[in-house]
Design brief:
Length: 215
């Protein structure tokens, strides 16, 4: 993740959506003070989707449970109508299974409402830069994957590749950083995906984040 001091937060436009007005107010005020550009707020999923279509923000901070459209369905639809907007789910629940659901829906991560609002600001920085963000509470469990149910150790290269995927790097960019061919990167991703029992590379990144296998 890029350091907050290196990020021009005024260039990061944000839509905040939650069906609890005090949360919308508190989050919007804090993010504005932190330097972000709040372009709209919404109290339900359909209003949030309309705001995203109109403003095309950098990030949409969306409550998981909202009327009309929940956060997961909102993430799916935003991916269809405004793929340039990254969705960050903002949840009052610390269910680790939420991470997989969120990433499979197209969200770029999950922040927890119990965490300090400064953590939310850092999460927006990460997502706006193309990375994935998972609250540390959700990444605290160890990953046990594979058909035998036992832990599968990742190599240093496999961890590095997954970490850079989480940061939003392409295969070509990862290869250039590690001084290997893109096909070698793909092979590392396939091996890590198999070891973790993941269905896709995004699922593999989610499992690695949840298990604190990558920072």
């Amino acid at each position: 993740m890029a350091a907050a001091s290196a990020i021009d937060r005024s260039a990061t436009s944000v839509v905040v959506c939650d069906d609890h007005p005090p949360i919308v107010d508190a989050v919007s005020r804090h993010l504005t003070q932190a330097g972000f550009a709040i372009v709209a707020t919404a109290a339900d999923g359909e209003a949030a989707l309309a705001a995203v279509e109109k403003h095309r923000p950098s990030v949409c901070v969306a409550d998981l449970r909202m009327p009309r459209l929940d956060g997961l369905e909102l993430a799916r639809r935003v991916g269809q109508v405004a793929p340039e907007t990254f969705v960050l789910l903002y949840s009052g629940f610390s269910d680790r299974g939420l991470v997989e659901d969120a990433l499979e829906a197209g969200a770029r991560g999950v922040a927890i409402k119990d965490a300090p609002l400064d953590d939310l600001a850092c999460a927006i920085d990460t997502v706006a830069c193309g990375g994935l963000y998972v609250d540390p509470v959700l990444g605290a469990a160890f990953v046990t994957a594979g058909r035998d149910g036992g832990p599968k150790l990742l190599t240093v290269r496999e961890r590095d590749v997954l970490r850079m995927l989480a940061d939003g790097d392409s295969y070509a960019e990862i290869g250039a950083t590690l001084f290997v061919a893109p096909d070698t990167v793909r092979s590392s991703v396939r091996r890590a995906t198999t070891k973790l029992g993941a269905r896709t590379r995004t699922h593999a990144v989610a499992l690695a984040l949840r298990g604190a296998l990558i920072p």
